[in-house]
Amino acid sequence: MKDTKAFGPLLQGLGPDEAARLSDRYVPASVQNTFWGVLPSRSDRPVLTIESGESIVIDTVSHEGIMPDQGSDPITYFGAYGLDRSELLDDTVAIPACKTRNMTDGSHVITGPIEVVGAHPGDLLMVTVEKLERRAPYGVISTRHGRGVMTDTALEGDYGTLCKVISVHGEAYGQLVPEGMDFHDQALDNCSYPSFPLHPFIGIMGVAPDTDAHLCSIPPYDFGGNIDVNDMTEGSVLFLPIQVEGAKFFVGDPHYAQGDGEVSLTALEAPLRATLTLSVIPQQQADALFGERKGPFGYAHGRLLALGLHEDLDEALRRSVDYSSACFRHYSISPQRSFTCICLRQLTLTSLKLSI
What's an example of a GO molecular-function annotation for this chain (predicted)? Predict the structure, then answer.
């Protein structure tokens, strides 16, 4: 049992049941609970241990505003937009002050790992996204390092912009903050500048690989990682092939919004608090339910999401089609017919009910 006194400010305003749940299974994004630029390994001690089927509340931190090329000083970075220290999250300030990263590491802040009792290699970890809450009323979109689609044009160079969360007809939108404008300028609340609807999701979810090495956080892997699928919103499910005892689940790279890809380099990067349910599907049951599995896959909005992961885009597409076809073959549909079925845009699953 954790010391609930440390969570006093967090638990204020919550009912007793909710406060008890948070104190037992709440994982803050503290310096001790996070990695910067790398993923947890099999040898890292868990920050929390839970039973299969239990829910956790876990905080995530955005890397935007804390990177070395942004000064490694979020107080100064966000202060340029008129935000003062009291408007910044404590973990956002503490992590760059207390942690270092190698130049070859990734950029993402990772929270975890979470141990799930009874999880074994070969099993599946079913991650149900129950709730995603914004931790700040702003986020950052940026392009830099010569990456993104338009780097050979006049847009070449490092550029970032703050976005403010506003309400449009009762719905949350992100609005670009023009250069030189203060975050608190009331003109931003009137939807006077380009804005877009928010659909929060977590870009990185995974389980520890079977290695003692701390792998870079940037690529996606067969055990999860930087998948960045914008369908993984509230109500979605991600299935991760467990590599080590206890699974050792981790999260990071929170987004308030993202298109079908990150053409500029980043999405709207901003911190989230996630409520997730972690359930173990034993290997034999997973085989019966899903058949052949070569990596992570998802279920969202009535659709099974076949993920093809590879550094080469053509190979990633081929793997996605191959896995989609394998899903059909599992239900005794011939390879020829399964391949043609993939062309049906409206083909969906009506339900996915599992007894774990």
Answer: hydrolase activity, acting on carbon-nitrogen (but not peptide) bonds, in linear amides
